[in-house]
């Protein structure tokens, strides 16, 4: 294959990765600012709101565990295409539902597609852009942040202008657009994406194959990623409620969710390069802990005194999220290791994180206050710090995952 053909092929893959990354959070943040309005029309309470908040992490967990098997059987590219199709169908259909169950089921379908995308994109970056890992990781994570921020920012204005169904359904256009370049990539590979390509390449090179759960690197990554996700999705779900109970408007609550997402741009731009330049980035994690403590304290004790400052501080805390995604590739030697670590980290991490938004809401309903819900988040910060200490150490998964040689 000529150099020009290779460059064109990589460009198509890059476009596919960018559009997929833009899709990976739209089903989450397009609905959270509208839950009060939707609940009033359809009929559900704060506990059901907590279920909607829990659903993303639950589906990300299930498909985080299953996706590595799908990738070995069908290939990363085909699985990425299937993820976009699932997401498009789920987003488009849920906007037409008139009952809580239908809204939940098709939200789950969309989020399942996003969960698949979460897992396959990092190893795809490693496969096609191992020579530009920091740059492409920065682009990918930045696009995830854009896809997180934009729906939250425009959800309420779109709903006011066209209704909440249009506000939800319009985001189906993104996964449809993302599916098109993946079709081109699959066609250009002429079937080479099928079966266990990564496993075959690993075995052929004599690299060891093991189980991620045997490695302290994987457990540290899962703790770091999982607790960051628990905090993040709890905030996505409950920031509007916390602020409206303190006297803010619904529109202001949606704007603060968008601000929370926008602050992630700082981390998305800086974290991948920082992780590649610093052997052990754990001091950055400690800075994130300080931001969490400041933001949580302000939001709990004086929410309307300086809400923008509190949200900015809390928004800087999840800098450990792009750090985790970057470390998936930096703490592995092979594509097989990257896929295994991505699946374990996101599967286990999201499984633990899914209790966050629901338990946050249950604690609020049980105590009629926010003290115990924020105590839950402080426990998550402590666990995240311990996990990050293990994940940030400069070592590789393959050196500690109970590996065996295949031949």
Describe the protein's topology.
Elements: H1 3-23, H2 26-29, H3 35-43, H4 46-74, H5 76-94, H6 100-128, H7 133-162, H8 164-169, H9 173-189, H10 197-204, E1 208-209, H11 216-245, H12 250-277, H13 282-301, H14 307-316, H15 320-330, H16 335-353, H17 355-367, H18 371-391, E2 404-405
Antiparallel strand pairs: 1-2
Helix pairs in contact: 1-6, 1-7, 1-9, 4-5, 4-6, 4-11, 4-16, 4-17, 5-6, 5-9, 6-16, 7-12, 7-15, 11-12, 11-15, 11-16, 11-17, 11-18, 12-14, 12-15, 13-14, 13-18, 17-18
- In percent, how much strand structure appears in the residues? under 5%
- Major sheet strand order: 1-2
**What is the average of the pLDDT values?**
86
Named CATH architecture: Up-down Bundle
Structural class: mainly alpha
Describe the structure.
This protein is mostly helical and 407 residues long. It has a single domain (3-193, 208-399), classed as Growth Hormone, Chain: A. The protein has 18 helices and 2 strands. It has a two-stranded antiparallel ribbon. Helix 1 packs antiparallel against helix 9 (173-189) and helix 6 runs antiparallel to helix 16. The longest helix is centred in the middle third of the chain and has 30 residues, at 133-162.
């Amino acid at each position: 294959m000529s150099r020009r053909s290779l460059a064109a092929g990589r460009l198509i893959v890059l476009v596919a990765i960018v559009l997929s990354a833009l899709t990976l959070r739209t089903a989450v943040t397009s609905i959270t600012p509208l839950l009060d309005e939707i609940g009033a029309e359809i009929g559900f309470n704060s506990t059901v709101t907590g279920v909607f908040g829990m659903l993303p992490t639950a589906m990300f967990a299930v498909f985080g565990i299953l996706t590595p098997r799908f990738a070995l059987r069908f290939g990363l590219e085909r699985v990425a295409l299937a993820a976009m199709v699932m997401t498009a169908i789920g987003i488009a259909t849920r906007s037409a539902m008139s009952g809580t169950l239908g809204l939940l089921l098709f939200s789950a379908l969309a989020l399942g597609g996003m969960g698949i995308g979460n897992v396959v994109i990092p190893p795809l970056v490693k496969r096609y852009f191992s020579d530009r890992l920091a740059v492409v990781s920065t682009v990918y994570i930045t696009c995830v942040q854009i896809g997180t921020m934009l729906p939250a920012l425009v959800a309420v204005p779109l709903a006011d202008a066209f209704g909440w169904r249009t506000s939800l359904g319009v985001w189906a256009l993104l996964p449809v657009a993302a599916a098109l370049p993946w079709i081109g990539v699959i066609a250009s590979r002429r079937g080479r994406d099928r079966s266990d390509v990564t496993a075959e390449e690993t075995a052929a090179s004599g690299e060891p194959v093991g189980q991620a759960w045997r490695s302290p690197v994987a457990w540290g990554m899962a703790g770091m990623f999982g607790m960051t996700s628990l905090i993040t999705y709890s905030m996505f779900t409950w920031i509007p409620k916390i602020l409206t109970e303190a006297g803010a408007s619904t529109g202001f609550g949606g704007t603060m969710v968008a601000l929370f997402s926008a602050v992630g741009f700082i981390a998305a731009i800086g974290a991948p390069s920082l992780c590649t330049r610093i052997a052990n980035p754990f001091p950055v994690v400690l800075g994130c802990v300080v931001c969490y403590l400041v933001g949580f304290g302000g939001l709990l004790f004086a929410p309307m005194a300086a809400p923008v400052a509190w949200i900015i501080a809390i928004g800087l805390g999840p800098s450990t999220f792009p750090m985790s995604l970057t470390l998936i590739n930096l703490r592995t030697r092979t594509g097989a290791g990257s896929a295994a670590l991505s699946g374990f980290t996101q599967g286990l991490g999201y499984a633990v994180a899914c209790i966050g938004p629901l338990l946050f809401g249950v604690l609020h309903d049980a105590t009629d206050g926010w003290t115990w819900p924020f105590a839950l988040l402080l426990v998550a910060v402590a666990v995240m710090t311990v996990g990050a200490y293990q994940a940030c150490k400069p070592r590789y998964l393959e050196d500690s995952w109970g590996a065996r040689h295949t031949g």
